[in-house]
Amino acid sequence: MKLPLIRQIQRTASVAEIEAAIKVLENISETPSLKDEEVDVIGELISNLCGALEVHQMIADGMPEKDAANTFMKKVLGSIDRVVA
Prior knowledge:
mainly alpha
């Protein structure tokens, strides 16, 4: 996940647009002829889109944009630390 990309998506796309993009990418990812590397790229894009949705929700709940983005990344890093430990 890349915070600058998540911020760009969150700032420039509506929730409906992000959800539509996720649906399209999920459908594309089920194509049997895709290579593993292509599926990995699609998965990374979906992760960033889902992150943007989560940031959108935090902002809608009243959190300032900068705090929402930082809170999201702390959550992601915290979950990675738990998996590795």
